[in-house]
Design brief:
This protein has helices at about 15-25, 40-45, 55-60, 70-80, 100-115, 125-130, 145-155, 170-195, 200-210, 215-225, 235-250, 260-270, 285-290, and strands at about 5-10, 30, 50, 60-65, 90-95, 115-120, 125, 135-140, 155-165. By secondary structure, the chain is an alpha/beta fold. α5 (about 100-115) links the parallel β5 and β6 (about 115-120). It catalyses: 6-phospho-D-gluconate + NADP(+) = D-ribulose 5-phosphate + CO2 + NADPH.
């Protein structure tokens, strides 16, 4: 598979590291990003810059995308100058953005009409997982297409699971985000409580992260909360987008999700306070602003 050329669209916080791993493993990688400077380091590593998505698509056998919002996914895949109108027959397209399950299936159907294979493969693990090639990857689409690129997924993640038909990768990722949503509030509240009680926060972490309260958010984002390090591993604005998608899908199913709804309410307030471009751990700052001082 190393003889295949990979096109990579979206070289942001996560995409840059992911594309870098593919270059390091000897793949020929074409890159495109809306802001060209964000791809400069990859070009220095050996990637080939493409001036448009159309050019990248024409020159690549496998095309991977990880962008911001469903509207971005729709634009890069379905517009006149988009991927599906310029990708080669028998190529494979892989969208790793967290997006709409319905859009993923729409792309799958339109790709099939053009003899292109399509997978939806959103990821979890944030900037740390991307840098360490330790992402969780949830894949929807045809088994045959998955089998053809499984080796590539294994270069980017340590937990790669084929979830079944198109859209199932996105549904799985929304389940992931639902599980994280209320948990992020719990991590922030636990830290605030421990600090207000005068505890040694490092000792608190040592106790609770190895017990029933343990979670990725607690171990990886908890220390950032304490240090007031709000650099984005995953943007607040993108988390809000994910929760909105999860709420929309839940409503279609007639489900009641009080934890998800409350978390969305809190993160909306965080957004309104100007934290859109910070990491999701910045939620602790919003909660701290409401502490009633004795």
């Amino acid at each position: 598979m190393s003889s295949k050329t990979i096109g990579f669209v979206g070289t942001g916080v996560m995409g840059k590291s992911m594309a870098g791993h593919l270059i390091d493993k000897g793949y020929e990688v074409n890159v495109y990003n809306r802001t060209k400077s964000k791809a400069d380091d990859l070009v220095e590593k050996g990637a080939t810059w493409c001036d448009s998505i159309a050019t990248l698509s024409e020159k690549s056998d496998i095309i991977i995308s990880i962008v911001g919002y469903p509207k971005d996914v729709e634009s890069i895949y379905l517009s006149q100058d988009g991927i599906l109108n310029h990708a080669k027959a028998n190529s494979i397209v892989i969208d790793m953005t967290t997006s709409s399950p319905a859009l993923a299936h729409d792309i799958y159907e339109k790709a099939k009409e053009r003899n292109i294979k399509s997978l939806d493969a959103p990821v979890s693990g944030g900037d740390v997982g991307a840098k360490n090639a330790a992402l969780t990857i949830m894949v929807g689409g045809d088994q045959e297409a998955y089998n053809q690129v499984e080796d590539i997924f294994n270069l980017l993640g340590k937990n790669v699971v084929y979830q079944g038909k198109s859209g199932n990768g996105q549904h799985t990722k929304l389940s992931n985000q639902i599980a994280i949503a209320a948990g992020m509030l719990g991590v922030a509240e636990a830290i605030i409580y421990a600090e207000e009680a005068g505890l040694d926060i490092d000792k608190v972490f040592n106790s609770i992260e190895h017990g029933a309260a343990g979670s990725w958010s607690l171990s990886n984002l908890g220390p950032r909360m304490v240090k007031e390090d709000y650099a984005p591993g995953f943007y607040v604005k993108h988390f809000i987008k994910d929760m909105k998608l999860a709420i929309e899908e839940s409503e279609k199913m007639g489900l009641y999700m009080p934890g998800l709804l409350k978390a969305k309410e809190v993160y909306d307030a965080l957004s309104e306070a100007g934290y859109d471009d910070n990491g999701t751990q910045a939620v602790i700052q919003l909660l701290k602003n409401h502490i009633k001082k004795r």
